[in-house]
Structure formats: structure tokens, C-alpha cells
Amino acid sequence: MSHSFSDLSRLVLPRSVALVGASDRPDSIGGRALDNLTTHSKFTGQLHLVNPTKTSIAGRPCVPSVLDIADAPDLAVVAVKADAVLQVLEDCGRRGVKFAIVFTSGFGETGEEGRQVEQQMRDIVARTGMRIYGPNCPGLNNINASLGFTFSPAFRFDRKAGPIGLATQGGGLGRTFVQAMERGVGTGLWCSAGNEADLEVSDFIHYMAGAEDIRVIATCLEGIRNGPRFMEACLHAARQGKPVIAMKIGKSDYGRKAAQSHTAAITGSAEVNSAVFRELGVIEVEDIDELVNTASVMARGQPTGHEKIAVYCFSGGTAALAADKVGSAGLTLSAFSDETTRRLRAQLPSYAAMDNPVDTTADVLSKPEIGYEALKAVCEDPDVGLVLYPFPIEYGAVTTSAAASAVRVQGEVATPIVPVWMSDKLGGGWNELVNGGLMPMHSVSAAVQSIARYVDHGRWKQTTSPDWRPLALADPASPALQTELPATSLSEVAAKDILRAAGIDVPRSLTVDNADGARQAFQSLGAGAVAMKIVSTEILHKTDVGGVRLGISSEDAAASAYEGIVDSVKRLAGGQAFEGVMLEQMLEGPFVEVVVGIRRDESFGHLCTFGLGGVSVELFKDVSRRLLPISLPRAHAMIAETQCARLLEGHRGKPPMDVEALASALVQLSELVARHPDTIEEIEINPLAVRPREQGVVALDAVISIRGKEPSAW
Amino acid sequence: MSHSFSDLSRLVLPRSVALVGASDRPDSIGGRALDNLTTHSKFTGQLHLVNPTKTSIAGRPCVPSVLDIADAPDLAVVAVKADAVLQVLEDCGRRGVKFAIVFTSGFGETGEEGRQVEQQMRDIVARTGMRIYGPNCPGLNNINASLGFTFSPAFRFDRKAGPIGLATQGGGLGRTFVQAMERGVGTGLWCSAGNEADLEVSDFIHYMAGAEDIRVIATCLEGIRNGPRFMEACLHAARQGKPVIAMKIGKSDYGRKAAQSHTAAITGSAEVNSAVFRELGVIEVEDIDELVNTASVMARGQPTGHEKIAVYCFSGGTAALAADKVGSAGLTLSAFSDETTRRLRAQLPSYAAMDNPVDTTADVLSKPEIGYEALKAVCEDPDVGLVLYPFPIEYGAVTTSAAASAVRVQGEVATPIVPVWMSDKLGGGWNELVNGGLMPMHSVSAAVQSIARYVDHGRWKQTTSPDWRPLALADPASPALQTELPATSLSEVAAKDILRAAGIDVPRSLTVDNADGARQAFQSLGAGAVAMKIVSTEILHKTDVGGVRLGISSEDAAASAYEGIVDSVKRLAGGQAFEGVMLEQMLEGPFVEVVVGIRRDESFGHLCTFGLGGVSVELFKDVSRRLLPISLPRAHAMIAETQCARLLEGHRGKPPMDVEALASALVQLSELVARHPDTIEEIEINPLAVRPREQGVVALDAVISIRGKEPSAW
User: Fold this and answer.
1) Would you say A117 and A132 are in contact if contact means Cβ atoms under 8 Å apart?
2) Distance from CA of A57 to the nearest CA of B (A)
3) CA distances from B346 to A265, B319, B340, B350, B356 (A)
4) Which of A537, A633, B175, B402 has minimal CB crowding within 10 Å?
């Protein structure tokens, strides 16, 4: 996989800018953009104004066209009417402009005609090399450099610089994020490319991954236009050690429908998106406030995944609530050292709770020095990775001084202190925390959720190889890769033949086309009992048409079952063709039935799904998912993520099952698909029987669907 | 069940008050309480000051003891040192005081000695009839009457009157709630009785249920001291049509431990608490902000359970996000009538989204009249039960006027409008919504969560009989009630005998004590195959000691299995006694295995747990729970709540199962327990086989534990 990403530094920090459609009307798009650039930005490069109807605007010279500018500007900001946009872009491209930001709306979001104009914009990109940002967008905010290429009247107000990069599609939710910086941290760069005719969220993620002033990347997505580029950009960020936090709209049918009609984006399957995010270490959140909270906690440090939490508070009920949430989130409370306990005892009143969670009691509020010493002792405990400090109430001067103490301690220790300002009264204490850069959260639950994501991300970094890439081909010498696929759709028999060739055991079987053959086959299989199934590429649900009989244990029974199956299928399967009846050894002894599926996703390629078989997968959706390729460690991780792992360990008197063979089978299937990525639409083994340790796995039923043919119903 | 609740109106609205420990030092407890009562309250009754060291305080006369007050005051507010409290309470009781509020701390929360003092307080209650509120509490705030019997310096600031009643244990989280009323609605009455030596949360819920100025009751609990009284109070509230919303700390081990050490409360099992809450229609929430949000949405109207939702917004991305959350929460978007669509078309620009979710586009912000008309059209649609209106950004004058329009529309329509102020910038629009009583939420997710609880509560009211009461006895003539229980613990054979007598089928079985008996028993059962199990009251895990053999299909096999079982049990069960070996017909044909358990909870009595059998109950905890008694409709509701219901409907070619018989069995078990509530600790049937329709259910294994004996491991 290789996807070129342009260097966007001259978009984000242009040396020269042409404002096309500059205006002296303060409420026009061109007028506001000019005001933002001249009055509210610190732009020190060259600014050219372009407007065919003016020779000067606000005392600055103005030319009719970008073609009249002597040196090609790095950036053209386009604020002209929709019907003039294409010609302006043509001129910019001809003039050698590197980037064009197009504010104008009335394109792809209005329908097919507008989408065709966007295609013409891409043609200009292809012809000239100029990259286009927009159309239908509020522009670009490089807040760290105090540059606003935007017509938004809010630019002058929402100006908190900081280490967070934000990439959005629609502008409204991006503004919500930027305004949340009222409570701290700061969004250094906000790219919001609207219809994404050319540059898209992936380009900005990729740029931010390399930008020195950005440490954390947040994104808000309605659709992902190009899956592989998105993956490449996120992997680049991961390799640079910069976490990406994403909110993706489209979890429910209503959301998918609304997002599609809003941006014409392909929203994709929420399950697949989430699985891909987890693979890439992209931290998924569900709402804007979660995006804000998680980004700001991520900006506090580099998690290791081993962080234990201390709760520090001046209210007993609040301390209990916070400890409760820490436990419910699966986080661990630190165990304080003797030294910490000694230091707390030396400061706090005897009736305070000096274990973790710490309840200093409200009496300490009136003695700021004690609060400072106690909090510092907690932060300096070697077992404490992060301190959660909920403030349940605004109490005027005393909470202000407690907040000031927290800021002072944070200046002296590396352990992140995450405060929660639970009250809707925002007073002096709130301001202390905000101004001290501690980014208070609004609720204990929200804070704990973000902290859990912080710790989880540390774990992901620990367990994920930075070299991992999706869709790489496996070793061509491995047996799975020798398998050749036919170009037609496959019967169960054919599918099992392929699995066997790929190194996955299947039951011994014979296919017959008359009752006598069934007798002979039964005898030659020499099994205690056999299953008999109709063989057909057309019949998907064999059981429903009476095409399956189990536990056949004599020659006579086999002959009679043959007749029964054929009669029933002829009656119920409405003329669908079949090739015979398969007799297959029934597997004896203890085993656990699991389900393995690999399915091709339009955006992200093949994903493998694993879970417990039987009713569990259907009723409880207890599955894990991975992009291909699946290595052995990744296969083991997939298995361990599901409840199924507990059954495989040996449950209620059953022996431990052959997890090694199961993991190998996942790898072999992955290699089989890697050899035929464009041919295989889907493989489903349901069930795959996992036998006791060292006895391997057996595929009891299997469907392989070829691309372009009917997929299975699963 | 009958639990007396005192009339608390003279606590909440006393005609005369004695402040014991009144002080003229402004920073003392007694001084602050006096200030709150005289300067910040509108108390028009008689105020007596009591302090043995003063004759006047702040120009008011002061007496040495309550015994010196001529007419017994309704309420004594006690602000004396811990060692003086008991004597003051004795005097108050003797004087005929009706209620005493004790601020003082240093009792039960400090350990056993303090708990004994609280017992002495209860002795005073029992002797004199005076009721005690506290100790270790911040007092009582009757905000609607502008009365503060509290020493809190915050009383003068947090004074928003309103329809919400709040009952808490600890004071800190209660203050968080009261301060959240900065954004609207208002807490009319806040009772926070600290250690609850006498009066407890249940008393306040019961009072608020009858109070005219309270429409919604919120409570924040660390433990429930008396389960039956809590249930009675909540049922009383339900019968008065007043929703109770509860946050209970103690979902995780950390939380349980912290809550116990904070208030010495019995936190109970989180699963049981949640099940009881659902039974009583108590709306459970997980954090204070959720408590605030849900209480304020509940204050907006009486839900029917049929509400469909309209999303109205001026940003497309935000509309998509909101629609997404509505779908994910299982809510339904309204389908607009033609009339609504016509009205929207007449107002909104052509590029607006006029379906639900409505995106007016930001262009409408500058035209407030259009926003008003469009929002009103949506609110007046007959299919719209509630309007969700997210404001993603603070944009100064235009968002202020949009918020003002929303308030104006709400003044003219009954449909609740729930606004979300998503930005952390709180500007003029925020103030409009707050002052207009629309109680803005902080995030779309939070708003949707509260709306979902609102609609769910409507459903609960529709489906729950207002006459339902826990633990009532069933009809004494029903067969289950004829069953007499032995006083000893029970073997499987004995347990099954009881079930059979109670009307629940069990397999035919015979118990034998030698191999020859096994032969004869096999023959006389006349079954295709039998199961053989050791019979013992001591051996709990029969499989683990080789005490179970399945699929025995001949006399010889039965004899040999007898010897095998006895040998193995003698070897592995370490001398545990057994009474013989049971031969039992094995059930044939299709059936679904479910698990039914009834277990006695210390706080709330017997609860029934139902779920799918096999690994599902262990791995996925897919169970439903009900307090006894279980009526037939309640049994059906229990079954329908679980994923199991999908299997019972007839799944993947299996026939529909006998859900009627299953529901009857739940009722019969409930009646069995109702006859022996003090004897039966637990009944577990695992599995109970549910056979095809009209073929009934069969208890394949059963444990009945007698109270005080060893319970099963389940």
C-alpha cells in the first residue's frame, strides 16, 4: 500500500496569499475573509487582493485576476459566487498557485450536477498539480500561527492556541470543538474541508502527524471517502507517536441516512469502521464532548497502559462515586506506599480517608497549604499514574484556592492531574483550572471514560507492532498460497476441498448420487455416525429444505436418508440444482464450536470476524474483528478478546481446547485470502470445531463466496 | 407490607423553631445557621434561640434549654458539640419537639462507638415520638418556601425554586445537584439526612410524593438501609404519578468499599438494586449530571411511552449526529405530516433539509421569524412527541435570537422542546434558554439518554399495574402452596419431588442402592436412555466427582454405571455421604434449556432470575430479574426481556417452544416460595427444558437451599 500525500505546509503556512473575491462590504464573505486576514491574523507574507470590479480595497491594491499577480502565490482563498469558481480555479492552476481554499457552497451537497462540477475541480488538480480545499467549507484556522483563512466571524473570538489538531468535514461540529477550548488546552490547527472535492480528512491527519506544533489529532467524520488513504494517514500518525481520536457519525440507520444526505459521504458499516479504528490505534468516541475530553487527556502525556489511578477529593460521597466509576471502567486504583500514607497522615485530619480514594474532608478547604501537601504526596506516589480530582461544588474562595493548589502541584510533578468541575456554577476555581491548563471535565463519568481511553491507548501501543500494515501479502511458500480457486461459486464440498488444501482439516467425506452409493460410502467411511447433506452451489439454507440429516449410523439408514433428502429438496428447493449428497464423518468427543468469517469491505479490504458459534454469535454479537493479514499474535489477540476464550480454556469439566491450532487456522485463512484478494468475497466457517489440545480444529461447515457471485446469508 | 411513614410537613414547614447552639460568631455552625434562618430565609413562625451561656444573641432573647420554651417548637435545629447532642435530644423529646435536625458530626461515621450513640438517638425516638434528621448532615433546604435549616454558607446563593425534590445521604453530591439548577428548573426541597440515625431517604421520598410543590423526585444513594420501606416509598410516589430518579453508588467493588467506609451503609448487590429500581419504576442513572438531566426532562411533562422525536437544528452535521444518537438509543424519529412539510417549505430555503432531522441551515439564523415559524410547525406536528434542538455553537446575537425563538415557541405549544447547548461558550443564547425554563443539556448524547429514560418511563407506566406490591402472598388454594418443605437441606431427588408437587414436571426417576436395582430400575423406566446421578445432600458438584453418567441405554450399562459412579464418588468425594444413585429418563427431541433461579436478598426479599441456559447465562449474563411474586403477565415480560425469547419463538428450523408453560412454571415457583418465604433461601433449576408448544417444561436439574444451610455455588 502506498498513497502519496502532498506536503501541506504551504497551505497551512503560506508565504503569499491571493484573496479572490476580496470585498470591502464588511458582511460579505470576501469582506469577512479580508478582515480575518488583515485585522485578526498575524500574516506577514504577501497578500494579493483579486476582484475584477475594483482597483483597490480598504486602501490595498486589487488586481482583476490571479493571472495578474507576478509571483505565483502559495495559496488562493476563493470567495466568489458558485458560477465563477471553476474559472477562478482554472486561472489559479495556470498561474501555478499551490493551494486553493474554496468557501463557496452549491456544489456536491446540492446533487448530481454539483458533483459533476467537483469532478471538474479534480480534473484541474490532475492537470495543474494545484490542490483544492473545499468547496462548501468555512476555511482553515491555523491558530498557533494566528492565521485565519476563513470568513467566519467567530475566528476572532475562538483563538486558543495549543497542541490539538482538528480535522473535520462539516464546519458546525468543528466549531463546537474549538469553542470547547474555553476550558483549556487549545486547538492549534483546524482543517475543515467541507465537500472534500480533493483534499480530505486523511490529508490533514497525515500533515498533522508530521507537524511540530501538533501532539494530538482529533477528527469528526461523517464518511471516509478512501479507506486505504485513511488507514495510511492514521498509521503514519501512530508511527509519529501522535494519537488520533475520531468521532464517526453513522452508528444507527437514522444517523447513516442523515449523514449521507448531508455530505453524500459513504458512511460504511459502523462495525467495520470501529474495527478498523481499533486496528489503527484510532481512539473512537461517540460525541463531541467525548472528543474534546479525550483529546485533552491525551494531550497530558504519553500513556504506557500501566497507569493506576488515584482519586483525590474533599467530599466523601464524591470520592466514592469516583472510585465506583474507576472500577466500572476496568481501571485500577493505586495502592499507596507507606511513605505516601505517612505524608498524608502528617497533613490530614484523623477522620479523613487516607487510603485511595482520598477524602481530605471539606475541613481542609480552609487550609490550602495542607491541600497542596496532600495532593503532592499522592502525585508523587510511585504507584500513581494519574490523579482524578473531582470538585463537586463551587464554594467561592475556598474552592478557588484548592484549584490553585492543584495547578501549583501540577507545575511540580509529571503525574497528570485530571480535575472534574462537577458544578454548573463556574467560579474562581474553574477559572484557575482552565487558566492553569488543567482542562477540567464536566462530570466524573466523562473524566473516567477519557482516562480509560488514555490507558487503553497506552496498552494498544504496547501490544501493536509499529510496522504492521494492512493487506500485505504473506509468505508465498506457505501451503495456503498454493491453493488455486475456481472462477465459479463453490459448493460445500468444493469449499472444504479448498480449506483442506489450505491446511485446515475438514471431516472425511464422500459424495454420492444414488441410494446404493450412500450404502457403500457409509461403509467405506467406517465411521460410527455420519452427517448427510445436499451438495449444491445454489441452495444456501440446506436445513430449511430438508437437505441435512444427522447421526446416520447404518448402511440402511444412509440409503433411506439419501432418498429422503433428495425427495425433500426436490419438493422444497423449487428446482434449484444439486450435485449429489455428501456423507461426512460426524465429529465425536468434546469440542467447542466457533465461527470464523472473512469478508471483503468496499472501503477497507478484507476483515476477519471471530466468535463463539451456535446461538451466541447471533444473539450476543460476541465477536472480534481484524483487518487482514492475521499474524499468529494477532490471531491470539482476536481469540482472547471474546468470551469464547473462557470456554476454550477448559470450562466446567471440559479439557482445555487447541487454541494454538485455532490461531493457526486464522492465519492460514488469512493467507488464503491474501493470495486471492480480488477473487474471494467471503469465507465463512460455521462451525469450526476446536478439539482438545493437540487435536486440532475441524471445519464442519464452510461457505466460500466468489466476488460478484451471491454472498451467503450470514 | 405496611410501613408507617410520619407526616413530615412540620419538619419541612415548621410553625416554630428552636435553634439549639445559636451563636453570634458568624463563622460558627450556630452562627451560620442563625444567619441563614434570619437573614436569608423567609421564616414567619416563632424562632427560639437556645444557648446556656447567653441571654441574647443578635438582639434576640436566648434561653438556656429547650425545656425553657413555653410552647413546644415543631422543630429543633441542633448545632451543639458532639458530646452535648444526646442531652439536647433528650430535652427536646421531653419538651415535645416534633422534629430535630442534628448537624453535628462525629457519630456513626467514626466507628462502633458512634454507632452506639446513634442507637441511643433511636431510643429517644422510640420513647418520645420525636423524629431525628441527621446527625452529620448539612441540614434541610426548603427552597420553595425560602427556608434554610442549614449552616451552609452556600444556602444564600443556590436558591432556584422549582418542582424537583432531592433526597440525598451525603451532602456534597446534593450540593452539586442544587448548583446544577444554574441551568434551570430548580430544586424546591432538598433533604440530606447524613447518617440517617432515624429519618432516611425513604421518608423524604414518601413525603415528596405527597407534597404539592414537588413533581419529580431525585435521589442519590450510597446504601439503602431498609429495603421494604424504600420500596413502599417508591410505590407511593408511583401511585402519585411522581417519577423517582436514583443514582446509586456501588456498581464496582471500589465503589462499594468506598461507600461503605463513607457512610457505613449496606450497599447491596448492584444487580439486585437495579432490578428492584426497574420494578418500582425508579429511573436509574449513573452520575450526577445524568440525575440532573433526567430529572429536568421528567419535569417537562408526563411521558406516555409512545413519544416520537423530531430533531431540529441549523447545522447539518449536528442534525446527523443527533439523528444518529436518537437511533442508537432505540428511539423513533417522527414522520412529518404533509401539513408540516408544507409549512417548512413555506419558510425554509430550498437547500434546507425539511425531513426529520430538520437542518434549517445557518442562513436562517439571521432571520428569527423564519426560525420561529419552522420550529413551531415541527412542534405542532401530530407525530412529534418531543423536539430535540441542539445548538452546536455560540454565535452571539444570532444564536441568542434563535434561543429566544425556542422559548417563545415553547410558550405556545405543549410538546417539550429539549435544547442542547453543545458549546463550552455560554453566551446570550444559553441565558435565554436557562431563563426561559428550557434547561439546556450540555451534549447531544446526554440529552438523548435523558429523553430515552423519559420515554421508557412512559412505557413502564403503561405496562405496570399501580396495584402491584412486592411479596404479597398468592392464592392459598393453588397447588404450589400445598407443598410442605422439610427442615433439612435437600437432595436433587427431594428437590424434584417438591417441584413435582408444586406442579412442575420432572423426568421419571428411580433411586437405587445396588447394581441389581439399577438393572431393574432401567427396565421399569422403559426409556430409550437414562441419566444416572449420585443422590446426596452433601455433594454439590456431582460431575466433578464422577457422579453423573449420561446416555445409559441398556440394563448392563446401568449396572456397570452404578458401580462406576459409586467407586468414583467414594474415591473423589472424600467421605461425603450419599443416599444412592438415581436413574432418570433422558429427555428427547427438541427443547431449549433455560435457567430459573429464585434467591432471597437480605434487603429486598426474594428475586427471580431467568435466562438462557448453558454457557449463555455465565458468559453473557443475559438474564431478567423480578421481585416476587411473579404473576403470569410479569412472567411473560421477564421472558420477553431476554435474548432467549428469540430462541423460544422457534429458531433456525426449530419449532416454537411452550412459552406458556414456561411462564406458568415461573408463577408456580413464585407461589412455592411465597408459601415458605422464611424457609427457602434459593431455588435453582438449571436447566429447565422448554419443549415445543403444548408439550410443557421439564426441570432437568434442581437445587433447593433451605435458609441457614449451605447455598449452591451458582
Assistant:
1) no
2) 26
3) 29, 20, 10, 9, 16
4) A633
pLDDT at res. B710: 46
E strand spans, A21-130? 46-50, 56-57, 60-63, 75-78, 99-102
Q: Which positions in chain B touch A333 (Cβ < 8 Å)? A: 254
CB atoms within 10 A of CB A356: 26
Mutate to test the interface with A, among B169, B619, B714 (most CBs of A within 10 A): B619
Task: State the best of B615, B657, B701 to mutate against chain A, taking most chain A CBs within 10 Å.
Answer: B615
The share of chain A scoring above pLDDT 90, in percent, equals 73
DSSP three-state, residue A305: coil
Determine, for residues B323 and A262 on separate chains, whether the beta-carbon distance falls below 8 Å: no
Q: How many CA within 13 A on the CB side of residue A221?
A: 33
Cell reading at A24: 470591502
Rg (CA), chain A: 31
Contacts of A189 (CB under 8 A, 6+ apart): A12, A140, A141, A142, A143, A144, A165, A166, A208, A211, A213, A214
Which residues are CB-contacts of B660 (< 8 A; sequence separation ≥ 6)?
B693
Chain B CB contacts of A615 under 8 Å are: 612, 616, 647, 651
Q: Do A424 and B252 touch (CB under 8 A)?
A: no
Interface test with chain A among B178, B286, B308, B324, by most A beta carbons within 10 Å: B324
Q: Give the one of B287, B622, B653 whose C-beta lies nearest to A620's C-beta.
A: B622
Using CB atoms, which residue from A170, A182, A328 is nearest to B317?
Answer: A170
**Among partner residues A222, A288, A445, which is closest to B320 by beta-carbon distance?**
A222
The CA distance from B592 to B687, in Å, is 9
Taking an 8 Å cut-off on Cβ atoms, the answer to whether B321 and A249 are in contact is: yes
- Residue whose entry in the numeric block shows the C-alpha cell 474555553: A182
φ, ψ dihedrals at B573, nearest 5°? -95, 10
Model ipTM value: 0.91
Segments of chain B scoring below 50 in pLDDT: 1-2, 472-477, 481, 710-714
Query: C-alpha cell of B117?
Result: 450513640
Among A385, A403, A218, CA closest to A293? A218
Cβ atoms of B83 and B59 closer than 8 Å: no
3-class state of residue A714 by DSSP? coil
pLDDT at B454: 98
Q: Given 3-state DSSP classes, what are the helix, strand and coil percentages for chain A, each rounded to the nearest 5?
A: 40, 20, 40
Query: pLDDT tens-digit profile of A182-235?
Result: 898 899 999 999 999 999 999 999 999 999 999 999 999 998 888 889 999 999
Q: What is the pTM of this model?
A: 0.92
The bridge status of strand B139-142 relative to strand A139-142 is unpaired
Give residue A550's pLDDT. 86
| Whether the Cβ atoms of residue B429 and residue B402 lie closer than 8 Å to each other | yes
Taking 70 as the pLDDT cut, the residues of chain A under it are 1-3, 262-267, 466-489, 652, 708-714
For residue A430, the chain B residues in CB contact (below 8 A) are none
Cβ of A393 within 8 Å of Cβ of B181? The answer is no
**Residue contact A254–B333, C-beta within 8 A:** yes
**What pairs with residue B140 in β-bridges?**
B149, B191
* β partners of residue B609: B597, B625
β partners of residue B595: B611
pLDDT for residue A711: 42
